[in-house]
Amino acid sequence: MRLPPLIEGRLIRRYKRFLADVALSDGRIVTAHTPNTGSMAGLLHPGSRVWLRDSGNPKRKYPLSWTMVEARPGVLVGIDTAMANRLVREAIENGTITTLRGYRRIRGEVPYGEERSRIDLLLEQGPKARCYVEVKNVTLVENGTAFFPDAVTERGRKHLRELAGRVAAGERGVICFCVQRHDADRLRPADHIDPAYGRTLREVVAQGVEAIAWQAEVTTASLQLTTELPVELDRE
Which of 54, 61, 190, 230 is the most exposed, having the fewest neighbouring CB atoms within 10 Å of its CB? Predict the structure, then answer.
């Protein structure tokens, strides 16, 4: 996925979940929309290099959106959760994610489930061959291990239950963790942050939900899923 030219700055602070103040190289201080509902643990150090995307829409209250941050020297992290859906869809369409090949049609944000959810990606081969793919953006990495979630998420547990429901109905359910940074070599549930999510993930995998993780190569010019990571569910 090619990116438009990004605007570099230095992070001042993130606040009210969806806002961040950034100092640009020309001395201006701007407020950018932050398209990430998580805690963004480890990514909010004042003075960190960040990159913003200009929506080009003057009617937006905050036309600039925070797109990525340098977590440590040479490690760029994509924080935009919407980009994760686009990355996974692109990787399915071009055959990168081999376990999800062979479907004729992909639809996004399709209503489904008993808890009134919307699936990120619905893959269809026919009326009786459907695969429900829930995408989660992962930005937290500690000592080479990617963790999800970075904050307690009841909504995330609901999505897992919905996938298990589709599997029980004879369809396919997949939770796909999209790791938007290159410095991880495996993924684990963040039991130290949300033990209930970890328990639910293990339960639904035992029921037939598939858990996969793919890592992105992140640059200021492009984003691309390149590497599958093992998902480790054993308790440490």
Answer: 61
Q: Which helix (H) or strand (E) holds 234?
A: none
- Strand, coil or helix: what is 127? coil
2 in a structural domain: no
Give the pLDDT confidence of 95-121 residue by residue, as tens digits: 999 999 999 999 999 999 888 899 999
Query: Do both 63 and 148 map to the same domain?
Result: no
Closest CA to 78 of 214, 188, 211, 187: 214
3-state SS, residue 1: coil
Q: Do residues 82 and 53 touch, judged by C-beta distance below 8 A?
A: no
Give percent above pLDDT 90 in the chain. Answer: 90
User: Is the peptide bond prior to 46 cis by the omega test (within 30 degrees of 0)?
Assistant: no
Q: Which residue, among 153, 162, 155, 168, has the nearest Cα to 207 in the 3D structure?
A: 168
The answer for residues whose C-beta is within 8 angstroms of residue 183's C-beta and 6 or more apart is 71, 75, 141, 144
Cα gap 109→171, rounded to integer Å: 17
Domain of 147, in residue numbers? 81-229
Q: In the structure encoding, which two tokens stand for residue 100, read together? A: 């999800």
